[in-house]
Design brief:
Elements: E1 6-12, H1 19-27, E2 35-41, H2 47-52, E3 59-63, H3 68-78, E4 83-86, E5 92-93, H4 97-107, E6 111-121, E7 127-130, E8 145-146, H5 150-157, E9 165-168, H6 169-175, H7 186-194, E10 199-210, H8 212-219, H9 221-224, H10 226-230, H11 235-239, H12 251-271, H13 275-285, H14 293-303, H15 305-329, H16 334-346
Parallel strand pairs: 1-2, 1-4, 2-3, 6-10
Antiparallel strand pairs: 4-9, 5-10, 6-7, 6-9, 8-10
Helix pairs in contact: 5-12, 12-13, 14-15
Length: 347
């Protein structure tokens, strides 16, 4: 383990269409990582063949399907690098990611982790930059820094995503691994948990390409996410490890983040067929959920009583099925359908 060694951990589940691009981006960094570890999480497609085609350039592991958290933990158990970076199989890095993050952590010894900006590929060919590229002198210009208040920044900007983060190995050994029992948003729980162990760094460079939406559309995401949605945890399960060690002054901002998670969990519960659990989440955390098409609809359904709630759940599942089926069957027309759906959201 040298001062700049990095272990890249890539969990892969039915990722044959995107895994090669992901691995190549890790191997093609300007500052070579010490190792790239790919964990095949019980895939049923050609993920294994794609990974094995890289030969000794990677470390290849296999396990029965147990979720992203369990797969990342399997990678952590064999990782040898001083720094750890997780990269999802449907995303990829620009060549400077490893070098920029290592340089930041070497210069800022107080930071337990650092994350960068990202470019999100949207359905229909559009892209979104975070942080946004300023169009005027009045708009916020972000600079590399150690954040004064991680939870405040996270609540305001929702800035952390798997693939943008590099962590000190020594901090992981002290804090522990990801929670394998959380099949959804285990990464969000981990960022909040690690942030209680020290300062967090931020570099605004757009170095991750988030292509998860288009990859899921190509595969048909209703089927792709079916098992994960059926195993969606409760909000209480998600927060159990963080709350006992959370500082009192971080509570309000943590609740904003939790509201985003709760909104996602309620939606996943409905899409997984667990309407009553979703209803309970909305009843308990609905006032903390950020306003968007799904949370607004769920709050309206809750107020409308039993029949109203049932109608909302049915509509959400039907919408998801139609949207997924259309994008899978007609990917070149996806931009038109997304524009139509966006108009329906705002109407």
């Amino acid at each position: 383990m040298n001062d700049k060694s990095v272990s890249v951990i890539i969990p892969a589940y039915n990722a044959e269409s995107s895994l090669s691009r992901c691995i190549e981006s890790a191997l093609s960094q300007d500052s070579d990582p010490a190792e790239v570890i790919v964990i095949n999480d019980g895939s049923t497609d050609s993920t294994a063949e794609v990974a094995k085609s890289f030969g000794n350039s990677i470390t290849y592991l296999e396990q029965e399907n147990a979720g992203q958290g369990a797969a990342r933990n399997a990678g952590l158990r064999v990782a040898t690098g001083r720094f750890i970076a997780f990269l999802d199989a449907d995303d990829y890095w620009l060549p400077e990611f490893v070098g920029v993050c290592v340089d930041f952590l070497l210069r800022h010894k107080e930071a337990v982790a650092v994350n960068t900006g990202k470019i999100v590929k949207l359905w229909g060919g559009d892209v979104m930059y975070w942080p946004p590229i300023p169009n005027s002198k009045e708009e916020t210009v972000f600079k590399p820094c150690v954040l004064n208040d991680f939870f405040d920044f996270w609540a305001k900007y929702d800035h952390v995503k798997t693939g943008t983060v590099m962590i000190r190995r020594e901090v992981i050994e002290k804090a522990g691994y990801q929670r394998a029992d959380l099949r959804i948003s285990q990464d969000l729980e981990y960022w909040g948990y690690l942030a209680t162990f020290g300062e967090w760094g931020f570099v605004p460079n757009h170095l991750l390409i988030d292509d998860s939406r288009s990859v899921a559309a190509q595969q048909g995401w209703v089927e792709k996410y079916k098992k994960r949605r059926s195993l969606c945890p409760s909000v209480k399960q998600w927060q159990d490890r963080v709350i006992p060690i959370l500082r009192e002054e971080d509570w309000d901002n943590f609740c904003i983040v939790r509201g985003r998670v709760a909104g996602g969990f309620a939606l996943n519960k409905i899409l997984g067929g667990n309407d009553e659990s979703a209803k309970s989440i909305v009843a308990n955390y609905g006032n903390q959920m950020p306003p968007n098409w799904s949370t607004n609809l769920m709050r309206q359904g809750l107020r409308a009583g039993t029949l109203g709630w049932k109608a909302v759940c049915t509509f959400i599942r039907l919408r998801e099925l139609l949207k997924s089926s259309f994008l899978y069957a007609f990917p070149k027309s996806s931009g038109n359908i997304i524009s139509l759906l966006n108009k329906l959201k705002s109407s």
